[in-house]
Amino acid sequence: MKHFLFSLLLFLSVSSFIAAANPIRNSSFELGRADFGISRHIRPENRKIFLEPVFDTAEKVHGRQSIRFDNPGGDTIELVSREYQLVPGRTYTFSWYMKSSRPLNIRAGQYCGEATLRSKIWTMTVSHIFRPANEWKRYSFTFTAKGRNSWYFTLFRWEAEGKNNSATVWLDALQLNEGKSPTPYSPSSGVEAALCGDRRVRFPGESLPCELRIVNHTNRPQTVKATLNLNDTLMDQISFPSQILTQTVPPNSAIALPVSTETKRYGHFRLAGVFDAAGSTHPLGGWFFTEIPRPQKRDTAPLKGFANGLNCDLGMPAYGIFSCAYRAINSGEKEYMEFLRNSGTLFLRLHDGELTWKILEPEPGKFNWTIADEHFRTALENGFVLMPVLGNMFFLRDHGNRKRSYSPLPDWIFKSSATRIHKMNGSWDGVSPDPEAWKRFAAAFATRYKGKIAAYEITNEPNIALPSAKEYVPYLKSAAETIKKHDPSALIIGGGLTTDYGGSTNRFLKELGDSGVLKFCDALSFHPYATPLDSSPTPANSAIQALRKQLDRYAPKLPLWNTELYYIAPSPIPYYAVSASASHAHHLLRRYLIDLGEGVERSILIQSSQLLQNELAPHWELGENYVYSGCIPHDRYTGQSVASYLLNGATPVERFQWPSGATGYLYRMRNGLQLAAVWKSPDAQQFVLSLPEGSFEVLDMYLNPLKHHGKITLSEYPVFLRGENLQNIMKKTKLSGVLSFRILSAFLFLRNDRPELLLEIQNISPKKITAVVRPDFTEQPQTAELNVNEKALFHFPGAENARPGSTKVYLSDGERNFTLPLPSFQRKLLRDGETANGNGFSFAATSTNKGLSLQITVRDSERGPRNAKAPWNGDSIELFFDSSPLDNPGNIYAGGNVKRLFLAPASANGLPEHKSAFGMDAARIQSAVTVTKDGYRAQALIPWNELGMKSPGILGFDIKVNNTTREGRLSYGIWSGTNDNYRFRNRYGLWHPAQKTGKEKAE
Amino acid sequence: MKKTIWMGIFFGGLLLTLPANAQKVLFSFDKETGTEPTEFLREGRWVNGGGDAAGTMEIVKAHDHANGGKALKITRKNGLANFSRLRVQTKNLNFKPGITCRVSGWFKGDREGLAQIQLTSPWAKNKKQWYKPIDFRVGKEWRRYSFEFIVPEASANSTLTSGKLYLTFGLFQNSLKELYAKDILWEVKK
Fold this sequence. Notes:
The complex is a heterodimer.
Chain A: H1 2-21, E1 36-42, E2 54-56, E3 66-69, E4 76-81, E5 91-100, E6 106-115, E7 120-130, E8 137-144, E9 150-158, E10 169-178, E11 191-196, E12 201-202, E13 211-216, E14 222-232, E15 243-249, E16 253-258, E17 267-277, E18 280-291, E19 307-311, E20 326-329, H2 333-342, E21 347-350, H3 357-360, H4 370-381, E22 385-390, E23 395-399, E24 402-406, E25 420-422, E26 428-432, H5 435-448, E27 455-458, H6 462-465, H7 473-486, E28 491-498, H8 506-515, E29 523-527, H9 540-552, E30 560-565, H10 576-582, H11 585-597, E31 602-605, H12 635-647, E32 651-655, E33 662-668, E34 674-680, E35 687-690, E36 696-699, E37 711-713, E38 719-723, H13 726-731, E39 734-737, E40 741-751, E41 754-763, E42 769-775, E43 782-786, E44 791-796, E45 808-812, E46 817-821, E47 829-831, E48 835-838, E49 841-847, E50 852-859, E51 876-882, E52 898-904, E53 914-918, E54 926-932, E55 935-942, E56 955-964, E57 970-974, E58 989-992, H14 998-1002
Parallel strand pairs in A: 12-18, 19-21, 19-31, 21-22, 22-27, 27-28, 28-29, 29-30, 30-31, 47-58
Antiparallel strand pairs in A: 1-4, 1-20, 2-3, 3-10, 4-9, 5-8, 5-10, 6-7, 6-9, 11-13, 13-16, 14-15, 14-17, 17-18, 23-24, 23-26, 25-26, 32-33, 33-34, 34-38, 35-37, 35-39, 36-38, 40-41, 41-44, 42-43, 42-45, 45-46, 48-49, 49-50, 50-55, 51-52, 51-56, 52-53, 54-55, 56-57, 56-58
Chain B: H1 2-14, E1 24-27, E2 40-42, H2 44-48, E3 55-61, E4 70-76, E5 85-90, E6 93-94, E7 100-109, E8 113-120, E9 131-138, E10 143-150, E11 164-172, E12 178-188
Antiparallel strand pairs in B: 1-12, 2-5, 3-4, 4-12, 5-11, 6-11, 7-10, 7-12, 8-9, 8-11
């Protein structure tokens, strides 16, 4: 007994030490490939089959087996571990055993990224190339962990670079231990366990096997108790009874136990929990799967009604390990196609893969259709409808350190005298390729694939690639004429208008319309990056309506296609990883519902990898090209499936005229039933929809029956009503909101040097009201008649004591009285000559007879590099001026009244001091930037007329200071507004001149 | 009982009679300058049942109403022993029987609770007194309520033959401690 207790204590201490010492789970592969992802980059001439690794019991270093990669096709293989955290500042040694049948270079690395709320960035990558011997040998390297909230993973990559190296490679006993040298190998714990099962998509009535595999590395039997919880990943209220599995595992052996995945409902689910063994508790999972409706029958004829789609390169998230590689992750092409097809997705836009002009016509007039033939054949066999983007994009962009060296256009096109390069601001130049070569390419493409292509989109995002539509129109026209000549049934999609990268569409569309080229188009495509959702600063539905209105001037019946949908997160942030991880099924569904409701005919998600759940590295979801987990559905996949099932082939019937924040549409599904979708944006008030008696179904976002008792409380998750005569039923519904008002903005300005409060109030009740508004510091209410959703500004003098949060605002709609706290002031206030502080800078703005004098001090002693044409990408000061900040405050866009000035010191990459302006003549602005001991100081004198003012007056003003390090990492500080200052003027501060102005007198 | 009758006579003597053709009467407290309203009185039961010890009636600032101005506030203190409600009433108004009246006004309580509004024709000996109470729930936030009263044709033995009505409202003592009222509008619909 004493001996047993001693052994137990010894084991417990070893077990906990091991857990701390080696964070790599299943590091000797006793649980198969659990906790690892395997990518195979398959060369184009090979079949796209995922060759599973072999667990070799004859060759091993630890336990019963090693992992063996046979590689007859010479694939470039990557092995990626589950993510883990290390202690910053500590030194670790990564070690592993490896052997190879033939000489081969293998890169082994520890990759690490910093995950924060706003961004995910690479903190460090430490990797080395090793050349395994033909017998087992231990390899290692040492590094110091960095970052504060960093997530690491292990990566091995065969450095074949596309060359045929069919060496067989074995790996075993991976370990991370603290210290500068490898310690004897130990697994992450004495007992390891993992949830295993490859199939993750289930239709109703089907089984979905999952098993708990357990390995006991110790010399004693171990009793393992696993507690597993199954939950819907989005709907907290959906959970299932815990499963408790208890089993004794013999020494040095492995077992498998079945785990129930039964849900009896649609949804996206996560199975996770813990297991207890030998006195320690360890995490298990999460293991994700989905249950979705079986897709509709696929019609591959050109569609009537709505269709959703995917931007797809027909390979798993491809990353250019080598040209034209097919990337298979944990499964092959057949499984990946089945995964996409099961989502019900019909339409594929082929843009991001290898179908570039460069690949297809490597020499003038000599075409290589090998990749395209294979891609199209596979897609068509799987029932997809195809839309290639002809020509990809007409640009020549920076590539690494080699400036203007990358383009999807063929290299030879740049040698043609008929090709023109357009110098553009930013990171690329526009290209007008040789027109005859373009026509030849379009003719060859359309001839070869006659009858197989549903639509051609004529280049991607020309409104940001090219200086104007004038450079685009001839290419659209010639492509349209040529394609229609060779393949009359193919549709021509023009436009590709984007609001990404600050792209503006109005002028470009006007130029397109004026040119008459739209008569050659079957649809106009757009990319709503700036307006992804109903909750965006400019709501998606308003943006579509505005686009439709503008298009109607030139082509009233021309359909709209949304061909790139990416930023579907609630709050777009210019980091793909973050915006992707913040977006979910309900965001995707809302966008599809809006598109269909507003009459958009196609809505195409970019990109197919957004349907994948990164189970191994949730903190790196879509963050990098290394860390993918295979055909594991994200909740966006479940959303995509629901959208496909309900909306493909549907047509819009009605948009409900509801208060701001609540959205509802009625559609006719392709089976003739009517469908209503209702939801609210997350920042809107609570709405309740009262339902009449009637014959209709009420379904949740994933199509499960919803208990409602005659009332639906709207949320950001859409709810569906489905029935035969919904239009009449919806007329009898009643939408009620808890509130009648929303305070859109609040800020102070000075009148006669006394603060006056401005409140922008919106009527969010379902009817016209007489609004009475009074903050608690005054006895005098203000009144206004407001229609549904109408906004009005209310002025309240004597606001010395107005305090956001503590000051109360009383509002009445004539029936109800509301008390709301005064929200934070949207604009900061600055008096003439007063010094204000921002994050890392201070400044003063003073009125003079000659103009506005600015003194800015920046605390930033480290100069970084700067882009010559994009000063905001380096150490610089951006100044924003709005000459009429109080005129038409409902118009939040930075339009003609807004001027901008850039000032920058000399940069680390040798660029001199910089001054440039938008909307002003920079030559008329006196400025100087002086480098100081701890930063730099800028001075500027801007004539009043350059600001659009005759004399000093209230000025909308803001300052943004961009800061780069030597490594080029960018951060910024802003005084009053946001990083969207270049688009929106409503958060600039208000600068007040000392003297009373004519403008103020007039007010 | 004698005391009640005496008080009724006392208040009856104070009541002013409004024109018979009045279609709309607004009881606004905004112009009140004193601490008590000039157009509302405490019910006789309240006066007889303890006066200020039972509860108070005062004019206060409607500081939390968007319109601002003033409000009438009823506060329960010891409450009434023999009656469940603390109520105030207007003076008599002339009216024609068989009309429909709408009474609306802003009300709020110190909590969620029950209040009451009532139209009454003044008591008269050997007549059947007509009155119509409506209970309503108030909350802590001001809300405008609207009530419809159908006043029947006057039968010979009804107090309605007097051609007078008065308005009463107040709180249920077991439900609310405070009741606030503001801008009460009494309209004749037909």
